[in-house]
Write a structure and sequence with these properties.
Length: 187
């Protein structure tokens, strides 16, 4: 949805507010696809300020998809807001300072709202904060049951570490190092 700021004919100090019902394409995070619902729509506010327009979007979304830890269904409620400035004059503004969502006073509301939502999402979508995830060996959901895979077998490549004995006060080496044995380390 494109909103033309010029067509709003706002004077300094005036505000335009409207709620737009937008559909969001699924979001992919960590290789997983999440469905997004914004039942109350996207609240768009445009303020005419000195030198341009201040555009703000706000939304409350529900994000549905697999938990990043246990793969059960997760539902996350997210509140997102984002603000962008659109100058009316190009003087004094570098191209890199301009918003990617506003070109020639035309606001791409869909993209601006999607960006706000993505930035507001947690780094991992989880079913609950204390989710224990899956066992790395057998794949058992540790929220439902406990497994004994870690007790049964450890990786043989790390078995030599069990024999490593560090003396108290040892600084960066074991008792059998070249430093403590009088060896010079030269061939």
């Amino acid at each position: 949805m494109i909103l033309s700021l010029a067509d709003l004919s706002l004077r300094s100090g005036e505000r335009y507010e409207r709620i737009y019902l937008l559909e969001f394409a699924p979001i992919v995070q960590g290789g997983q696809e999440y469905t997004v619902l914004v039942p109350d729509g996207v609240h768009v506010m445009v303020d005419r300020v000195t030198g341009g327009y201040l555009v703000k979007v706000a939304l409350d979304a529900k994000v549905y998809g697999p938990c990043a830890r246990c793969l059960d269904e997760a539902v996350v409620e997210v509140h997102a807001e984002q603000q962008e400035f659109a100058p009316t004059a190009k003087d004094g503004w570098e191209e890199t300072e301009a918003s990617d969502f506003i070109k020639d006073l035309m606001v791409d509301v869909d993209s601006l709202a999607r960006e706000a939502l993505i930035l507001a999402l947690p780094s991992q979508v989880v079913c609950r904060e204390d989710c224990k995830g899956l066992c790395g060996v057998c794949g058992l959901d540790l929220n439902r049951d406990s497994c004994h895979c870690a007790d049964e077998k450890s990786d043989e490549r790390w078995s030599r570490l069990k024999d490593l004995k560090l003396g108290e006060g040892a600084q960066g080496g074991s008792e059998g190092s070249a430093e403590g044995s009088g060896e010079t380390g030269a061939p």
